[in-house]
Amino acid sequence: MPITVTLDDRLHDKRMTLTELAERVDITLANLSILKTGKAKAIRFSTLQALCRELDCQPGDLLGYTAD
Amino acid sequence: MPKIPEDRLLFFTRMMLTLLLGLTIIASTVALLTIPVLLAERGDVAAQLAASGIDPAGIPSIAILLALVAGIALLAFFFVRHLRRIVDSVADGDPFVPANADRLRNMGWLALAIQALLIPTTGLVIWLDALPHKANVHYSDNNSFGGLILALLLFVLARVFRRGTEMREELEGTV
Fold first, then answer.
1. Using alpha carbons only, what angle is made at residue B38 by residues B36 and B40, rounded to the nearest 5 degrees?
2. Per-residue pLDDT tens digits for B23-52
3. Number of alpha carbons in the 13 Å side-chain half-sphere of residue B74
4. What is the 8-class DSSP label of residue B131?
5. Fewest CB atoms less than 10 Å from the CB: which of A6, A10, A39, B53?
6. pLDDT 10s digits, A17-45
7. Are B150 and B111 in contact (CB under 8 A)?
8. Sign of the dihedral defined by the CA atoms of residues B3, B4, B7, B13, in that order
9. Which residues of A touch B170 (CB under 8 A)?
10. pLDDT confidence of B132, banded at 50, 70, 90?
11. Which of A29, A33, A41 would best serve as a mutation to test chain B binding (most B beta carbons within 10 A)?
């Protein structure tokens, strides 16, 4: 998929673990792991909003696009 | 997926379908086994029919009719088996799977095939009924569009299920 998720980089910047983020945004670790590994097919605005709030970033900081 | 607790409707449906599976197998087997017996004992059967005042000219047609009945029963068996598996998946709490869409589509084809076999079957029964000294064959004129409508409905339902399955997969991939 040409859409990439750069969640790992933001977590690294914030010195936060995936487990910690999962607790803060109230999303299961399994689902967040799916998002992090790029296996998710879609992301809800509410999820994006929670991630941006906790990671103090913009949606564009979490997602990237690379042409095929 | 959570397993749906066994309810009376599902239990009754599964029982009925299991019974139907048995009946279709019995009907198909009996019809198939009768054909060689009828043909082997053709002379005796013809003599007995003639003695009873029934025209024995219908014996080959009766054999063909039995073959058609066996075919219809066999197709009905596969139809009911698909339905039983769909009901089982409902009981398991996971009916929106690609396999059920395939099953519904196959059931549609089976309904069409049964309908196609019913045409010569009905024709033969009408012909046998019209023989002099009626061979005591009875039929009910139920050759309506019901079978065709059922097949169309099953094809549409198959598409609904396929779309439902795709939507579920999409939903499961949404974070």
1. 65
2. 999 999 999 999 999 888 888 888 887 777
3. 13
4. S
5. B53
6. 999 999 999 999 999 999 999 889 899 99
7. yes
8. negative
9. 41-42
10. low
11. A41
Q: What is the predicted ipTM?
A: 0.76
Q: Which residues pair with A64 in a beta bridge?
A: A4
Q: Which residues of B touch A35 (CB under 8 A)?
A: 175
Q: Identify the pLDDT of residue B137.
A: 57
Residue with tokens 């063909």: B64
Tell me whether residues A40 and B170 touch, CB distance under 8 A. Answer: no
For testing contact with chain A, the best of B165, B166, B175 (most A CBs within 10 A):
B175
Contacts of B136 (CB under 8 A, 6+ apart): B54
Closest CA to B121 of B139, B136, B107: B139
CA distance B163 to chain A (A): 16
* Residue position matching structure tokens 């139809």: B79
Q: How far apart are CA B73 and CA B67, in angstroms?
A: 10
Encoded tokens for A39: 């296996």
Subunit contact A44:B175, Cβ cutoff 8 A: yes
Distances (CA, A) of B104 to B83, B98, B110: 8, 10, 10
